[in-house]
Amino acid sequence: MSSAADRVPWRWLAAGRTSRRLVLVVVFVALLLDNMLLTVVVPIVPTFLYTTEYEGANSSVASAQTEPPPPALQAPPFSSMFSYFDNTTVTVLGFTSAVNLANRTESSRPPQPPTSSPPLPSGCPEGEEFLAKENVRVGLLFASKALVQLVVNPSVGLLTNRIGYHIPMFIGFVIMFLSTLMFAFSGTYTFLFIARALQGIGSSFSSVAGLGMLASVYTDDFERGKAMGIALGGLALGVLIGAPFGSVMYEFVGKSSPFLVLAFLALLDGALQLCILQPSKISPESTKGTPVFTLLRDPYILVAAGALCFSNMGVAMLEPTLPIWMMQTMCSPKWQLGMAFLPASISYLIGTNLFGILANKMGRWLCSLIGMAVVGISLLCVPLSKNIYGLIGPNSGLGFAIGMVDSSMMPIMGYLVDLRHTSVYGNVYAIADVAFCMGFAIGPSTGGAIVRAIGFPWLMIIIGVINIAYAPLCWYLRNPPAKEEKIAILNQECPIQTQSYSTQKTLRDFPLTDDSDVEAENVE
C-alpha cells in the first residue's frame, strides 16, 4: 500500500515531463520573474540615487558648515565678583560681556548676501541640475541589461541548437537569482550597474530558451499563437506587478525588501524547473537550424523584428525619464512613480491575452499595423498630462497597443521559420529577443540624453512619430511567400492563416540524409 502511494509523485512527475501545459507554466513563471525584476527597479533607482548622492552630499556639507562658535565668543556661564562693601564674594552671570563681545564681532563682519534659493512647491525635490544629469545615468543603468543581452543572445541561440532548451533555461534561473540578491544589497551606482548587467545574461538564457521550447512543443500555428499569448501574459504580469510593487515596498518597507521577495520566488521557479524540465538532460535538435545570419537576411523577419524593437522602445524610453519628469513637474511622491505604469501594465496584460487568439482571425499583420499606430499616438499624448491621473489614458493605450504588437509578432517569427526556413526555433527567437533588447538598449541610453538636450516632450514626439511612420511596413507581412517551394504559397485574399506542419514532418525520417529531399518530393 505504501509502495503504491510512493509511486504517485513519480507518476505525476513522469506525466508532467510530457505535458505541454507544464512547460508553458515554467516559461510563464520565468518570464514573470524576469520582467518583475526588470521593472521593480524603475521607481526605486531614481529616488535611491537622489537620496544617497544628492541629499547625502548636501547633508554632509551642511554639517561641515555648522561649526561651534570660536572660544572668544563663549562667555563663561558664571563669574565671581568681590564686594568691598561687606567683604563677600558674589557670583553673577557673564551675559553682558558675552553679548557685547558678540555684537562687536558681528559689527566688524561685512554683510552676507542671502544664500537661500526661492522656495520650491511643497514636495518637489531640489537640485534641478542633479536631476537633469541623473536622466543620463539612470538611462545608462537601465540600458546595460539590454546591451549585455544583445551581445549574449546569438550565443544562446546557437547553444540551444546544440544541447537543447532545458539546461540554458536552468542557467538563466541561477544567474537571475544571483542578480536579484545583488540588487538587494547594492548601495552604490556601480554595484547597481553590475547587477543590472548580470540580469541581462540571465534574461537572455531564460527568454530565448523559453520561447524556443514553446515553439518546439506547440507545432500547430493556432495553438502556438495561444501559447505565446499566455507566455507573454507572464511577461505582462511581471511588468504589471513590478513597478507598483517596487514603489510601495521601497516607500514603506525599504530598498532590499522587493528584491528579497523576488529572490524567494526565483527559488520556487528553480525547484519547478528541476522537477519538470530535467536540466541535466542534453537534448539537441534533430535537424540543424538555419544560421542566424541567414535569418537576418530575410526581409520579412527583419520587418517583424523592427516592429518589436520600435514599439517597445517607446516604453523603454519612458522607464528612466517619466519618473524624473514626474518629480520635476508634478512633485510626485515615491509611490506614484511606480503607480504611473500600472495602467500600461494592466492594458498590456489584456492586450496580449485577447489578441493571442483574435490576431489569428483578423490577421496578425493588421494587428501589428494598428498597434504601432496607437503606440505612436499614445506617446504623443503623454506630455499633455498635468498630474498622475492624466497619464492613465495615454499609458493604457500604450500598453494595449504594445500587447497587440507582441502577441502578433512572436507567433509570426515562428511561422516565418516554418514557411521559409528549417523549423528549428532557437535562432529566430534569439533574433526576436535581440529586437526587444535593441529597443530597451537604445531607448533608455538615448532617451536620457535627449531629455537633457531638448526636453521630455520632444522625446515623446520623436519616438511617437517613428512608430507611426514604421506601421505601414507591417503590410508586407500580410502574405509572405514560401521559400524554395517548400510549402504552397498562401492565397492572396487571406491573411496569415492557421497552418499545421506536424503532418509534413512525419513524411521524413530522422536523422535526415542527403536523399531526404528527393524522397519527400516523390511522396508529394
UniProtKB/TrEMBL annotation:
Domain Major facilitator superfamily (MFS) profile, first and last residues per copy: 23-482
This one is known as VMAT1 protein
Q: Which residue ranges run through the membrane?
A: 21-45, 171-194, 200-218, 230-253, 259-279, 300-318, 338-358, 365-385, 397-417, 424-443, 455-477
Write out the GO MF terms: serotonin:sodium:chloride symporter activity; xenobiotic transmembrane transporter activity
How is the protein disposed in the membrane?
A: Multi-pass membrane protein
Query: Which reaction is catalysed here?
Result: dopamine(in) + 2 H(+)(out) = dopamine(out) + 2 H(+)(in); serotonin(in) + 2 H(+)(out) = serotonin(out) + 2 H(+)(in)
> Which keywords label this protein?
Cytoplasmic vesicle, Glycoprotein, Membrane, Neurotransmitter transport, Synapse, Transmembrane, Transmembrane helix, Transport
This protein's record includes keyword Glycoprotein: yes
* Ranges of compositional bias, category Pro residues: 110-122
Quote the PROSITE patterns the UniProt record gives: MFS
Identify the InterPro entries for this entry: MFS, MFS_dom, MFS_trans_sf, MFS_Vesicular_Transporter, Tet-R_TetA/multi-R_MdtG-like
Report the locations given in the UniProt record. Cytoplasmic vesicle, Secretory vesicle, Synaptic vesicle membrane
- Annotated region (Disordered) at 104-125
Query: Species name for this entry?
Result: Chordeiles acutipennis
Family named by the database record: Belongs to the major facilitator superfamily. Vesicular transporter family.
